[in-house]
Design goal:
By secondary structure, this protein is mainly alpha-helical. It has one domain: Arc Repressor Mutant, subunit A, CATH 1.10.10. Strands 1-2 form a two-stranded antiparallel sheet. Helix 2 runs antiparallel to helix 4, helix 4 packs across helix 5 and helix 4 crosses helix 6. It is elongated, with a radius of gyration of 18 Å. It starts with 19 loop residues before the first helix and ends in a 7-residue tail after the last strand. The relative contact order is 0.11.
Length: 138
Amino acid sequence: MGGNDRSSEGDTEPAGRPTGQKRLEAAERVLRGERLRWLLGKKRELVQTGNVFGKTMTDARYERMLSEVSHTELERELVLMELEKGPRGVPEVAAATGLPGPVVFRHLVMLMKARRVEVRGERDGVELFGPVETGGGK
């Protein structure tokens, strides 16, 4: 709780980008997540042994793929973190995360397919999304 809060909630910088603290929290959640850990555990197999078809990839290709997956997962966690504050529409999530609306929408579609997000209603013609509630909670 230092003097470097950048907004009233301390969540976003003036331009709508999440603060370094929020991005760090999202990165920690990504590292605890299954997808990135699985990919890290598969490096040797993908680079040396090959995938299920026997095809190997170069270290550079693996690193590029790892970077892309990390970036995607970080964005997804930022979206989820915003939705955990309460139901939000795409424009609200986009403004809070600094991500373009179409990118937020794509993440929401993938999160709905994974059953991590659901539609929670509508406000002023905008669908509201929130995390899937897992019984016994609030």
